[in-house]
């Protein structure tokens, strides 16, 4: 999950988050692919190998995607966690 600064937090439904992450579905890209892409972009940002001046610039650019990621992750997490 992303620790999004309050300035960039957006309340959204699961359906809206799914729609945001489905924008490239016609090209064969899945929601999981998009979620992994956003994580990869964050890792690149953290390594300093991107064009963003700071975290604020990153979250300004990826505001919708990071919020959508958090909503989808929260809802889907039980599917990936092993039970006792």
Provide an overview of this structure.
α1 crosses α4. The chain is mainly alpha-helical and 84 residues long. Helix content is 60%, strand content 0%. It is globular. The protein has 4 helices and no strands. It has helices at residues 14-21, 31-47, 55-61, 63-80. The longest helix has 18 residues, at 63-80. The two termini are 23 Å apart. The mean pLDDT is 91. The chain has a domain at 35-76.
Shape: globular
What structural class should be given to the helix and strand makeup? mainly alpha
Query: What percent of the residues sit in helical stretches (DSSP H or I)?
Result: 55-70%
Percentage of residues in strands: under 5%
Largest sheet: none
**What string gives the helices and strands in order?**
HHHH
Keywords:
globular; 84 residues; 4 helices; mainly alpha; 60% helix
Give me the secondary-structure topology.
Blueprint: H1 14-21, H2 31-47, H3 55-61, H4 63-80
Helix pairs in contact: 1-4
Short description:
This protein has 84 residues and is mainly α.
